[in-house]
Predict the 3D structure of the following.
Amino acid sequence: MVLPIYTYGQPILRQRAPEVGGDSLELQRLIDDMIETMHVAAGVGLAAPQVGEPLRLFVIDLSASAEDIREENGGVLPDWARGAQVLINPEVVPEVGTEVSFEEGCLSMPDLREDVLRPDVVHLKYLDRRFQPHSFGAQGYLARVVQHELDHLDGVLFTDRISPIRKRLLQRRLRRMADGDVEADYPLFPPRAPR
Ligand code: NI
C-alpha cells in the first residue's frame, strides 16, 4: 500500500524516533509499504517518520545509480546497491575530516534541492528486516543517503544543514510549505489534490 508522505511542517518530522523493539507482522507490513511508497515516489530513501511512524527504521534503494556505484567500487556492484534495503535501529559514525558537498533533496520537501556538506566516509551498523546485524564502512553515495535518512530519525532535515545565507533565502518557501502550499506526483500528508 502506498502511504502518504508527511511534508515539511508536520511535527513528527521534528521528533527523535524511538528504537524498533522487535519483529511483528505490523512491522513487516510497514516495511513493505515503505518500500512501495519509496518506489512510487521515485525516492532513494524513506524514513519511517516520513510516513507518520515514529520508529528508527528507514529504507533505501540506490539501484538507479548502480552503474556509478559499480564504478566507485572497482567494477563490483555491492549487495547494498542491489534493490531495496531495510535498515533497522541504524547507527552511523561519520569519519571526521572527509566532508564533501552534494546536492540533496527530500520526499518531504518536494522540488527543493540544496548543497549539503557531510562526511564522505562513515561506519554503518544496522539490523536488516530479518533482524540480522550488519556492520561495515561506507562512502560516497551510500554514506550520503544513510546520513540523510538517519537525520530523519533524529528530527533533522537537510535544510538544517545548509549555509545560513541559503537558509535565509529559503525561509519564505519553507514557511509556505508548512502552510500547505506544496504539491507532488505522489500522495502527501496533509492530503493535497494530485498534480
Ligand atoms: Ni529526506
